[in-house]
Amino acid sequence: MKIIKIDKKEWEQGLDKSRKEYHLFGAVKDKDYYLIQALGDKVYPDMESSDTILSPKSVIFPQTEKMLTANLDEAQDNHHIMERVETDYSPRAVLGIKPYDAKAFKILQLNFDTEEFKDPYFCDAYAATTLVGLAVNNPGQFDFSTSVDTGPFDETDLDVLLIDTGNEYLAKVITDKGENFISKCGFDNQTDEKNALETISKLKKKAEKAIVSTVSHDKLNGKTILELYNAPFWDDIAFSCINCGTCTYVCPTCWCFDIQDETKDKSCIRFRNWDTCMSRLFTEHASGHNPREGKTQRVRQRFMHKLKYFPDKYDQGLMCVGCGRCVKHCPVNIDIREICEQMNS
Amino acid sequence: MHTYTEKIQNLAKDVLKQGKAEMVIGFKQGTIPMAANPFVAKNENDADNLIWSSTCGLNLANYLPGIKKCEGKIGIIAKGCDSRNIVTHIVENKIDREKLYIIGLPCTGMVDKKQIALLFDDEITQFSEEGNTLIVKSETKEEKINKQEYLRSNCKTCTHRNPVIYDELVSDLVEEQIIEDQFADVKKIEAMSSEEKWDFFDKLTEDCIRCYACRNACPLCYCPTCFVDESGPQWVGKGQNTDDIKTFHYLRAYHCAGRCTDCGACEEACPMDIKVRNFTRKLNKDSLELFNWEAGLDISQRPPLDTYQPDDPDDFIM
Amino acid sequence: MENPYRPYPVRIDDIEIATEDKSLKTFKFVFLNKEDEEKFSYQAGQFAELSIPGIGEIPIGIASSPVEKGFVKFTVFKTGVVTSHLHNMQVGDIMGIRGPLGNWYPWETLENKNILIIGGGFAFTTLRSSIIYMLDPANRAKFKNIDVVYGARSPGMLLYRDELYEWEKRDDINMHITVDGTDDPNWNYHTGFVPQITEDFGPKADKDTYAIVCGPPIMIKFTQPVLEKLGYSDDQVIMSLENRMKCGIGMCGRCNIGKELVCKDGPVFTLKEINLTPKEY
Predict the structure, then answer these.
(1) Which stretches of chain C are DSSP H helices?
(2) Which site among A152, A155, A209, C195 is 20 to 30 Å from C280 CA-CA?
């Protein structure tokens, strides 16, 4: 384990050095709020930023992503034969990602990188990405990450964990990818490990203690799918839902997508878009039959997927990292914490 | 607690007890500060959960078409704009007047949650109101602010705070605002050059994530299949192409022409803080200027795009 | 890394109108690259995504059988955007096929068993694949009695009519062909709904008998109690489900019934398994 001390005054210079090899991503203030963006020249991530509205999942799993393309001109030899779209998978680094947002990529990986099939778009982007996390010293009131097997200092899916100690960052170098990034930045002020770990441990305890929001899910495993599915509360929970896609789009662990084709002149592309289980179209058969016709069924699907189907299928905890974005941004205030408690009771 | 809360609870209890309605649609306290959760009270106990506050910014008329199982009447708490959308529902045959028991709520405006949040560097942890004073707290500071200064922009220009249709009222009617220039914002855009307008609208929609919260929060948007969801023919592409995104916003606005009550639910619901009323406001202005029309004031009047008069203005037709 | 979204290029080799109302057509495809045909090695009961560049994809059960080499066949009902486009395509056109996808009928379990196949309407495609597979001289000895109940609205709506009538003449398969009704005085087969014909002519269950059921929801609904009456337990009833799909490889998230993904964990489930999941299909 290597711990590097980075003087905040040298942070931006270091990032500039890394740009030779890496495309940088980070939180940037846009209008009145923060978004994760590709950082142009001389643009630096706002490390003091509050949560971005959308999670950083788009860096690896963009909302719209080209997959395949074909030439439709019958005069050409290869017409109507689909080939993968060329995409730049040179190294990229996400700066200041919240540790639990990074953990969400491990959850997405369970879906996209399986024994039978590998989604090459996700896998290539994930492999190209270095995740430079920033420990959350002051968790917000919506953060319930410690209730769902992650937390403000979780290192599970980070390559580097930065800890803000005031005038400097302590950078815990976790993986080879992290090592490469830190060295490309020219940060090499290795510090005494024992002292640093003590400082980090103190801050971590303080942060975890500051988390006010919790949710219990210990009894979910003991209930059957049908017991929860047929529970009496779904109609009441779903009443206020307007079936927009906000919860699913802001969520770092929602992975569902749609595939669409578009043509222009004599060429076509096949691309995917984030999709949402809140939409009626999501499950509508061509015949018009819809197994999740009503909004109760759709709302139930979202929570059952996150809190029961996923845990049962993968045995890797909930499909939620407790970031609180859906709680904060739901236009009608449907709160996953409340629903989880109801399911758990 | 807002002074209306207790009155709403008592009225709702009475309505449910007397069987004047089978359910009452209102709001209950949200789980986070400045949030209110649309809620249906089906019995007197439920009615204890009903609340009112200046954060009840969604339009409850939006929930009426979705209620399928109700033998008796549906009770609904309706502020001015909600009541105008109820009128629109009645005019457009979405629901029968006879089916409704409307508890009218003279409104003093809803607050702009996003503006208030900008007063703080950290998260708001508490929100309460005493008359015209809003008390907002975070971990690091407390602000007492004047509600009138933090009204949503649609509430600032509202001239129909009182419900236009009701069976009962929560309180005495409130004084309506006199607005000197109701469409100053629209005129600013009208004065722009074509290039400036393009630029303005491009910037306006650039962060749209197509979650359709604006559409789904809107009581007017009840089409069984919205044109953006239609697949045969597919009118609009489904990706994050900016032309497709703009097509959605422009066409949706036109579909609301002469029907929009400027209730502000679309902007309230938008997670990306896109000011989508910039589209509908222009059409409201045109409706007023060309047809002397404001939507949802009278159940006996058809909206202007629904009728033809030989003397309809036609100067805009080339 | 193999890209599971990239379809194998194929050429339409033959198009046959499958039903008298022309709403179903059977498409025969040949692979442009011989090695793709080898990669597309499938079992009866699997499906594939028919992939038309610029239009989209549609999941369809494979109607040809693993024992038929050199081509693959799909019978497609014209209903949505992609299938309507496909119905207008011509022999010689180039498109794609992605697969094989999903699981298949449990052929290992079914060895040395009596098999009752029950099909209705358009849902006979993977059942055809299965029958051809079982009747193949190399495989027939692996199975005991084979009974097939297959029904459609009218004689002209039966799929694969020529084959049905051929099988009817054989003594190693018991065919119970039926139509809801017909005014054809020469109709030599049954008249009546599939559940009734199953009750009257289907074999009673013993521990060595399995039923494979594929058909419209209404047929399935009324066939289930009949199978129960005939003594079939829920794990002896095998069904193939359909749901809206996009990716076909268990990633896009829409086709689930509970935690099972119809495209990857299915489409074939036993009734016992289905009974443990929400009925969202």
Answers:
(1) 34-39, 81-87, 107-110, 125-135, 161-169, 194-201, 217-229, 271-274
(2) C195
Can you tell me which residue has the tokens 């992975």?
Answer: A255
- Position A313 pLDDT exceeds 70: yes
Chain B hits for C80, CB-CB cut-off 8 Å, are: 231-232
Residue C187 pLDDT exceeds 80: yes
* A265 and A224 co-located in one domain: yes
Structural domain that includes position A108: 2-54+87-210
**What is the phi/psi pair of residue B89, to 5°?**
-60, -40
Strands (E), C153-208: 174-179, 190-191
Domain that holds residue B249: 182-318
Identify whether C256 is part of a domain: no
In this prediction, residues A190-216 reach a mean pLDDT of 94
User: Predicted confidence band at B127 (pLDDT cuts at 50, 70, 90)?
Assistant: very high
CATH number at residue C230: 3.40.50.80
Residue A85 DSSP one-character state: P
Q: Which chains touch C (3 or more CB pairs under 8 A)?
A: A, B
Q: Which two tokens stand for residue C1?
A: 């890394």
Q: Looking at the partner chain, which of B216, B229, B241 has a beta carbon nearest the beta carbon of A244?
A: B216
Distance in Å, alpha carbon of C111 to nearest chain A alpha carbon: 26
Which residues in chain B have their CB less than 8 angstroms from residue A250's CB? Answer: 271
Instruction: Supply the pLDDT for residue B248.
Output: 97
Say if C260 falls within a structural domain.
no
Q: Does B234 touch chain C (CB under 8 A)?
A: yes
Contact C80 B231 (CB under 8 A): yes
| Per-residue pLDDT tens digits for C232-268 | 999 999 999 999 999 999 999 999 999 999 999 999 9
User: How many Cβ atoms are within 10 Å of A8's Cβ, its own excluded?
Assistant: 13
- Mutate which of C254, C272, C275 to disrupt the A interface (most A C-beta within 10 Å)? C254
Q: What is the pTM of this model?
A: 0.95
